[in-house]
Structures are given as C-alpha cells and as structure tokens.
Amino acid sequence: PVYDPVLDMVKCHMTCTFGPWTIPPQELSFPDSIAKYKYFAKFLLEGEVFSGLSQFVGCLFSPPITMVKPWAKLQHRTQVFLSALVAKQVFSKASLLAVWKDDPKYLLSAYSMWLPQSVHRVLGEMWPPIEHK
Q: Each residue of 46-101: pLDDT tens digit?
C-alpha cells in the first residue's frame, strides 16, 4: 500500500479478473477495513500525510510499520492511535483536517505516546501539524 497525496487516499494493488481473463494488478483505493486505518496511521507517523511530522520519525519509539504488524495490538500506543482514528473515522488528510477544525488537540495525546517526553513540548507547540501557507 501507498499514500497518494494528490488523491488523499491509501491505495493498494489488487489482481482482478473479468470472466475467464486475469487483468494485471491495478492500483485502487484501499478497501474499507481496519487495515485501511492501520496503513493511514503508518503514513501519518512517517510524515507522508503532514510533512511537519517527518521531523519526529527518528525519535519514534517504534517504526511506523509497527501499525500494520499482526502483533501491533500488543503495544498499547498502537492500539490507542488506531482506536482514535477509527473512533472519528479518520483515514485521509481531509477527514483529519475536518476533525481538527472542531478539536485541534485531537490525536496529540495518542501521537505523543510514540515519542520521548523530551520532544513533547515541541510537538505541542506545532500541533496540529498543518502546513500554513
């Protein structure tokens, strides 16, 4: 899966068939499932959705790919982050921006769990990590 910033969606490659014919893999919108939220969380943690978050990637307690691992639920921070996204149905930049309009501190606590205390002040000062033009 990949995050497409132009279309603002998580995409994946799927094999398709049309009758007896197999069509080469197609890049499509990721199907609605919990995995869609997990991959969006991964891309968010990597700084692919909001570039301002990329400065924290090197400080993360776990690599963002942890979000999609089968054992991810064993880490409390992955469950908290995922649950926050699912609760507000956030799986795109647009949906996250819409939530931040009403609740600018949304995800700050869950995201902070991924980082050492030493960077919490910097994170809090720039939250939400929206690029201002």
A: 999 999 999 999 999 999 999 999 999 999 999 999 999 999 999 999 999 999 99
Q: Which sign, positive or negative, has the C-alpha torsion 109, 112, 113, 119?
A: negative
Model pTM?
0.91
- Helix (H/G/I), strand (E/B), else coil: 71: coil
**Torsion angles phi and psi, residue 3, rounded to 5:** -100, 125
Residues 6 or more apart in contact with residue 64 via CB below 8 angstroms: 41, 42, 43, 45, 46, 57
Could you tell me which residues come within 8 angstroms of residue 61 by beta carbon, excluding any fewer than 6 positions away? 77, 114, 115, 116
